[in-house]
Amino acid sequence: MGIRVEVTQSEHEILRIEKECGREQHSRANSPHSEALQGAKTFALWPLSQAAHFCFGKDTWPDDIPVPQAWLEFDVDNVEEATGELESRAYRMLTKNKKEPWGQTVTRFISPEGLLVGVTFTPLMRDKK
């Protein structure tokens, strides 16, 4: 399972957090992240404008959807099946089985706790057999 965390702080705050936690960090699509943080496959900082872009196709979060306080992703074997299970429990999907440019398939929703949750299949994070 890959874990990612989103923060909505300013660029200055993101740079401070990068310095505190980041050895071997790098930027993918202007989103600082690291695979070197103990206990997580990936740790990333994702500005709210980028989260909005990948969820809604624009750089601002819609007024009618609560602004997420953090971002968490779970990498699963079958996104469509996981999405169906979530929908059967009345979760409202923001994106559904969307194929991202880097090959990841993702469904995203806001949890009752205010988290932006992604259910993903990420080929790059999988061990090659």
How would you describe this structure to a colleague?
This protein is an alpha+beta fold. The protein has a single domain, classed as Signal recognition particle alu RNA binding heterodimer, srp9/1, CATH 3.30.720.110. 23% of the residues lie in helices and 27% in strands. It has three helices and seven strands. The strands form two sheets. It has a four-stranded mixed β-sheet with strand order 4-7-6-5, with helices on one face. A three-stranded antiparallel β-sheet has the order 1-2-3, with no helix packed on it. Strand 1 and strand 2 form a beta hairpin. The two termini are 17 Å apart. The N terminus is likely disordered.
Shape: globular
CATH architecture descriptor name: 2-Layer Sandwich
Distance between the termini: 17 Å
Arithmetic mean pLDDT: 77
What is the CATH C level class, in words? Alpha Beta
Number of domains: 1
CATH fold name, please?
Answer: Signal recognition particle alu RNA binding heterodimer, srp9/1
Number of strands: 7
Instruction: Report on the biggest sheet.
Output: 4 strands, mixed
Helix/sheet category: alpha+beta
Radius of gyration: 14 Å
How many distinct helices? 3
- Order of SSEs, N→C? HEEEHEHEEE
Beta fraction: 25-35%
Major sheet: arrangement of strands: 4-7-6-5
